[in-house]
Amino acid sequence: MPLLKYEQIADDLRTRIANGEFGPGDLLPSGRDLAEQWGVSRATVVKAYDVLRLDGIVAARQGAGFLVTETPVARSAGGRRVGSTRLSGGAPYRRLGAPDRTVPPARVADALGLAPGEKALRRVRLTLLEDGSPDSLVTAWFPPSIADAAPRLSAKGPIVEGTTHYVRRQTGRSPVEGVDVTTVRLATEEEARLLEVERPAAVAVVLHTAFDERQQALVCEEGVTASHTFEQTDNYPMGQAN
Fold it and tell me: Containing H/E element for 32?
């Protein structure tokens, strides 16, 4: 289905930010300029900026317009339901180490459909609470087909537009289904160190896999969260039983 006009404007701005035309803290084109450029109403441009704001890419500054955010946000693993945004579920984060290719754990390999011993691209981040303390340790695994087509995933710096949008631009593939599996176990020594908890410590582990329309995995994320900060809330309709 073709993108609506505001979606086209939002995607164009994402691309310009990703290509370095606008950096963190830079002022973006005004609503009037974009409305003239695209031949649309100011309301359409505002809607495009709202999409980027909810994705944590831009921030509004009163009297100035919209700026590229200086503090990118990321979400914990899982909960990527339709209508969710990076801003509503996102938090500041630190990137840990440099992306590398290695053989993933067995259940990640199974989720990605990898052959035994096949490597995947690994990116690790640590999301933070409001006070700057650790929240969740998230390891994202990308299959070779995605990693090869999206080279910026192998770069150390953040992808301001978000990996989902970047992968879609590079491959034409988007997530249409997510599967989340939550388990509980004890933290490893490295997990306890990064999450700043004393062992033995219980952690919740969310394994999130995103699939495209052909049911091929785009990414598998493992999020490890200490028990004292983990909370999961589900909202769902209820009705009379038949």
Answer: helix 31-38
Name the band, by pLDDT with cuts 50, 70 and 90, for residue 142. very high
CB 57 within 8 A of CB 17: yes
Indicate the residue type of 181: V
Cis peptide before 105 (omega within 30 of 0): no
Sequence length of the chain is 242
Residue 8 CB neighbours (<10 A): 15
Q: Is 42 helix (H, G, I), strand (E, B) or coil?
A: helix
Distance CA 136, CA 156 (A): 19
Angle in degrees, 0-180, between the axes of helices 5-18 and 42-54, rounded to the nearest 10: 50
User: For residue 178, what are its two tokens?
Assistant: 């997510």
Contact indicator for 66, 46 with CB cutoff of 8 Å: no
| pTM of the predicted structure, to 2 decimals | 0.77
Query: pLDDT (tens digit, 9 = 90+) per residue, 72-103?
Result: 666 676 666 655 554 456 678 888 999 999 99
Going by C-alpha positions, the residue among 172, 156, 205 that lies closest to residue 164 is: 172
Q: What is the pLDDT of residues 153-186, one digit of tens each?
A: 998 877 777 788 889 989 999 999 999 999 999 9
Residue 32, class by beta-carbon neighbours within 10 Å (0-12 exposed, 13-18 middle, 19+ buried)? exposed
Q: Which residues, 6+ apart, have CB-to-CB distance to 237 below 8 Å?
A: none
